[in-house]
Amino acid sequence: MFELDADAFDEFCDHLLVRDNITEEYVGCYRMLPPDSAAAAGGYYTATEFDISALDPVANRIVEMGRACVDPAHRTGSVLSLMWSGILHYLELTGYEWVMGCVSVPVLPSPDSIAGADVRGVRDFVMNKHASPGSRRVIPRNPVVLGGLTLDEIAAPERVTMPPLLRGYLRMGAMICGEPAHDPEFGVADFVALQGLHSANKRYLERLRSAAAAHESGIG
């Protein structure tokens, strides 16, 4: 049985839905919070977890993405690709230039894993390969500390497991804006990803545009 995930930001957001053309069931959703709606909501959701004042220079051009959800039976990657193509279309329609979102990494992905190890591995990888400039670093309000240990004190795994949503951001060319915040309610660590449309991976964008065109014509 699935539970409804709702919060005070939902009513201010535009909502992106992916529907299976055969079953007519909704199989994916994402919400988008543009700047004017963020102002009406009292700010971005991301600001509840981070001090995002370093992003103020581009704040009036940022659309915040959040609460991505894909039906377990459709987690092959195609739904997420369609969602990204929808986001791209939304940016083109509205004229906004930046996408920001919290990307979650489970603190304890399995009962036999070490708490925080995957978060440490992901943190090391993204901050080494995809870190934002120092001028665009956010500050977590609740840094990851597990069992009295900071991330630097938790051993990284031999192999890094990258969540699909984070992988999609990185393929687009997104930068990660600093250390993660701990969200104990959901048992995750959240990273802030920031993507400028002007600096996006052009080849990946074309793939997304093709996916959207195929879907609209009934091919996909």
TrEMBL record:
Entry's Gene Ontology molecular function annotations: acyltransferase activity
Family matches, as Gene3D superfamilies: 3.40.630.30
Any single biological process term in GO: lipid metabolic process
Family annotation (InterPro entries): Acyl_CoA_acyltransferase, Ornithine_N-alpha-AT
UniProt keyword annotations, A-Z: Acyltransferase, Lipid biosynthesis, Lipid metabolism, Transferase
Annotated metabolic or biological route of this protein: Lipid metabolism
SUPFAM superfamilies, alphabetized: Acyl-CoA N-acyltransferases (Nat)
Record's protein name: Phosphohistidine phosphatase
